[in-house]
């Protein structure tokens, strides 16, 4: 081995990893991605704000359409009304927030469908967004060391934090269990060992836990939000359109042992057709209601709360259902294989089963709830203005403090949406190393008052990702970790549709909405 | 926590009295003229781990809420209570939901209160849209309330009063906005604002005189993207005009724009600032700017 020869080169690489741009890079990248597309995605998800105007006789319905969202760079409005650019050091010294105005195109649309006309359409300021120091919307982005010194900034400062009311707050990276993955594990119920396949199905900030259990008598049961208790597996897949016995067995597994288990389940099944299955489901989700309502509710629950991550923009719910059935069959297979000892239970501490939520992801969650709050306020203001016979105009229905408040308060206090606390922390300025370590720290959401021995242990898959020695002593030991020096954090794909199209062209079947894609056959 | 007590002067030296915390002190000689036995400020104890968040009770009393911020809300549980396991379920939850709804309805007792709530939200909205400080909001709400208790509302519009309260407060705090600036973000029309402002001015005796054009300068300078040097020169022009009594009869906003235009011209920033642009910012006709410029040149 020529390790001796490469020493100087290795040193160069090492030094490169310690450069200013690298140390908090995961924070900028994540936040820049949020500013670049995350915000627009959240707005596009929302798309419209509906109002109750038009419910009365002889009144035209009104709704608001949301368009492009735009963030400028941080600036401050003085008491005398003048506005100027704000630099981080000034924000720190004056105890103000380093935030930039956010603008959004909004149009108020009046009239029935087909006869709609835009009453008012303008780009209006909807609030202020705290900006990460060093991100692309930061006023010091691209400054040379000399320029940084001139505006009172430390050229060695890594950035990657926010300034709210003059205090520097860093958003703690949090380590969560990977969503949309099947995890099989053992559990106990009434003293018996049972097998469970779990999935945290996540889509647009909505997170639903779907469980598939194999009970002690060998029957499969599924539970998901909005349905209390659990539902028979066969009933549910039949409701999803997988009707015949053969089909169901085939989709679960071809393994003779598993088939045997599956046949036991089918024998016990109390429904045979899709209609029957939906009826049974309806009785569960809306018992005591009229039959029509039960059916409506059952369909709604299936499409809305069951495995939401399988939904696709612009694809009929009907097409998604069969995929949900297939997914449930995969979960069933995992249960059976675990029961037969064909596989071990999944390791939750394996790093392949972990996802990191960095500042951009956290800000996206925050922006989503803030925008919803703003939408509710706009709806109220519109209805109010309409009731008092005022002209409806965009600029008079938007209260920009609503969004600002919702964005700044969690960063200032650390009380995030979803009840998590301690998400933002005061940057540790004890010394320079303290800052660097703090920016590269990550936290497990597990409670520190419980043992969780496995979660605290060093896992082999942390090699090269997590520092094996840097963790606090005491209750947080092993739950608070630090990135390894050469850690590289990958991001989610930008264009999920594109990825799926590519997969379909390579021969993956059953992706809804992409059936007609030409398959390119590999030449080799 | 600093309040300027302008109603009384120091009994010893006629200096200004200032209230700081529990004591009222003369700024010049340091005489403690009054003492409040109750400290009405927040308690400086921290109950959280964070040292930055020292407080024991909720937000301070405010005049900008119809109930002075003393309302009680039935919440949904927060912090560790927001955990899905400890959430209420079934009958209990439905009962609490009904209670919450009735409680919300009971918060507003009369039609007058409802009007006040509407006015206050409108004031808040206008205030935020104009990026005005919170003190303006507080003052505007007090003004709105006095207008209501004086019985000025019948026959005039609520939106007008809300907008006029903000306009009047800005004006009395020497930080004037033009009527047009307020009405672009307010729900009131120019007429509604003027009618309401006249009523306020007449019935409540607002302490307002003619607007000093210099008060517009920083804002317009920043809008026209002019430096501090230009602004300072414009300030000189405006002061000269004032001393010579050449301002009366002209829109002060236009005078400010004229001064800025002339100052910018001196520093050869012409291409960026035209008379039309200056007039546009000040919301006056270019002729007003032009005549001001001519007056400046004559002096």
UniProtKB/TrEMBL annotation, chain A:
This is DNA-directed RNA polymerase. Residues 180-357, 425-486 form the RNA polymerase Rpb2 domain. One of its GO terms (biological process) is DNA-templated transcription. Keywords: DNA-directed RNA polymerase, Nucleotidyltransferase, Transcription, Transferase. It comes from Natronorubrum texcoconense. It catalyses: RNA(n) + a ribonucleoside 5'-triphosphate = RNA(n+1) + diphosphate. It comes from the Archaea. Residues 23-404 form the RNA polymerase beta subunit protrusion domain. Coiled coil: none annotated. SUPFAM superfamilies: beta and beta-prime subunits of DNA dependent RNA-polymerase. One of its GO terms (molecular function) is DNA-directed RNA polymerase activity. It is an enzyme of class 2 (transferase). It holds the Pfam family RNA_pol_Rpb2_3. InterPro entries: DNA-dir_RNA_pol_su2, RNA_pol_bsu_protrusion, RNA_pol_Rpb2_2, RNA_pol_Rpb2_2_sf, RNA_pol_Rpb2_3. Transmembrane segments: none annotated. GO terms for cellular component: DNA-directed RNA polymerase complex. Its EC number is 2.7.7.6. Part of the RNA polymerase complex.
TrEMBL record, chain B:
One of its GO terms (cellular component) is transcription preinitiation complex. It holds the Pfam family TFIIB. Residues 40-87 are annotated as: Disordered. Residues 40-56 have a biased composition (Basic and acidic residues). GO terms for biological process: transcription preinitiation complex assembly. GO terms for molecular function: TBP-class protein binding; translation initiation factor activity; zinc ion binding. Keywords: Initiation factor, Metal-binding, Protein biosynthesis, Repeat, Transcription, Transcription regulation, Zinc, Zinc-finger. This is Transcription initiation factor IIB (TFIIB).
């Amino acid at each position: 081995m020529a390790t001796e020869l490469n020493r100087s080169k290795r040193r160069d690489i090492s030094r490169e990893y310690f450069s200013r741009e690298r140390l908090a890079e995961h924070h900028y990248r994540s936040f820049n991605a949020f500013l670049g597309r995350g915000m627009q995605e959240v707005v596009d998800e929302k798309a419209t704000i509906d109002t109750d105007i038009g419910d009365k006789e002889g009144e035209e319905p009104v709704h608001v359409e949301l368009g492009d969202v735009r963030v400028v760079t941080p600036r401050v409005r003085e008491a005398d009304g003048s506005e100027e650019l704000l630099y981080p050091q000034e924000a720190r010294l004056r105890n103000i927030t380093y935030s930039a105005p956010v603008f959004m195109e909004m149009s108020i649309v009046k009239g029935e469908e087909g006869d709609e006309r835009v009453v008012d359409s303008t780009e209006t300021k909807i609030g202020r967004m705290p900006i990460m120091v060093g991100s692309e919307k930061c006023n010091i982005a691209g400054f040379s060391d000399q320029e940084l010194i001139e505006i009172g900034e430390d050229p060695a400062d890594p950035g990657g934090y926010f300034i709210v009311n003059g205090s520097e707050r860093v958003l703690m990276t949090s380590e969560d269990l990977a969503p949309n993955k099947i995890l099989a594990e053992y559990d106990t119920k009434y003293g018996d060992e049972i097998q469970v396949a779990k999935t945290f199905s996540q889509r647009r900030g909505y997170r639903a836990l779907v469980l598939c259990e194999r009970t002690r008598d060998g029957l499969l049961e599924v539970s998901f939000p909005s349905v209390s208790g659990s539902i028979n597996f066969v009933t549910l897949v039949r409701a999803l359109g997988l009707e015949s016995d053969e089909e169901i067995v085939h989709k679960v597994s071809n393994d003779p042992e598993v088939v045997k288990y599956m046949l036991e389940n089918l024998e016990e099944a109390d429904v045979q057709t899709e209609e029957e299955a939906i009826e049974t489901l309806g009785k569960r989700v809306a018992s005591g209601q009229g039959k029509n309502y039960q059916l409506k509710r059952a369909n709604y629950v299936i499409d809305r709360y069951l495995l939401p991550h399988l939904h696709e923009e612009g694809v009929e719910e009907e097409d998604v259902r069969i995929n949900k059935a297939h997914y449930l069959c995969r979960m069933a297979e995992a249960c059976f294989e675990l029961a037969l000892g064909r596989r071990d239970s999944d390791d939750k501490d394996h790093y392949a089963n972990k996802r990191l939520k960095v500042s951009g992801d956290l800000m996206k969650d925050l922006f989503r709830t803030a925008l919803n709050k703003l939408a509710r306020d706009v709806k109220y203001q519109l209805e109010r203005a309409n009731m008092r016979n005022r002209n409806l105009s965009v600029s008079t229905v938007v209260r920009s403090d609503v969004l600002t408040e919702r964005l700044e308060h969690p960063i200032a206090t650390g009380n995030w949406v979803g009840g998590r606390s301690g998400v933002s922390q005061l940057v540790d300025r004890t010394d320079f190393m303290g800052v660097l370590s703090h920016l590269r720290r990550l936290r497990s959401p597990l409670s520190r008052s419980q043992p969780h021995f496995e979660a605290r242990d060093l896992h082999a898959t942390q090699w090269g990702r997590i520092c094996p020695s840097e963790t606090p002593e005491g209750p947080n030991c092993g739950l608070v970790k630090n990135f390894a020096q050469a850690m590289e954090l990958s991001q989610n794909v930008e264009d999920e549709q594109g990825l799926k199209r590519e997969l379909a062209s390579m021969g993956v079947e059953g992706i809804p909405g992409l059936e007609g894609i030409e398959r390119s056959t590999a030449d080799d | 926590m600093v309040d300027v007590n302008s109603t009384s002067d120091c009994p010893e030296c006629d200096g200004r009295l200032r209230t700081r915390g529990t004591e009222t002190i003369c700024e010049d000689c340091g005489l403690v003229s009054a003492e409040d036995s109750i400290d009405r400020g927040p308690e400086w104890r921290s109950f959280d781990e964070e040292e930055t968040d020292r407080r024991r009770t909720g937000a301070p009393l405010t005049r900008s809420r119809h109930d002075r911020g003393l309302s009680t809300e039935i919440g949904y549980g927060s912090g560790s209570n927001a955990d899905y396991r400890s959430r209420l379920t079934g009958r209990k939850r439905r009962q609490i939901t009904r209670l919450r709804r009735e409680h919300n309805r009971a918060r507003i007792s009369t039609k007058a209160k409802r009007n006040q709530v509407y006015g206050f939200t409108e004031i808040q909205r206008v205030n935020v849209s104009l990026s005005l400080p919170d003190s303006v909001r507080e003052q505007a709400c007090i003004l709105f309330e006095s207008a209501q208790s004086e019985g000025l509302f019948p026959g005039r519009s609520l939106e007008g009063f809300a907008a006029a309260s903000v306009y009047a407060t800005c004006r009395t705090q020497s930080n004037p906005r033009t009527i047009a600036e307020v009405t672009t973000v307010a729900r009131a029309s120019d007429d509604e604002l003027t009618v309401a402002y006249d009523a306020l001015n007449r019935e409540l005796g607002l302490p307002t005189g003619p607007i000093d054009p210099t008060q517009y300068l920083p804002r317009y300078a920043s809008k026209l993207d002019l430096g501090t040097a230009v602004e300072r020169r414009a300030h000189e022009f405006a002061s000269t005009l004032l001393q010579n009594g050449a301002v009366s009869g002209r829109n002060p906003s236009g005078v400010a724009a004229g001064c800025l235009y002339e100052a910018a011209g001196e520093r050869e920033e012409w291409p960026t600032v035209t008379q039309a642009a200056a007039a546009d910012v000040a919301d006056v006709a270019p002729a007003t700017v032009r005549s001001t410029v001519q007056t400046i040149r004559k002096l």
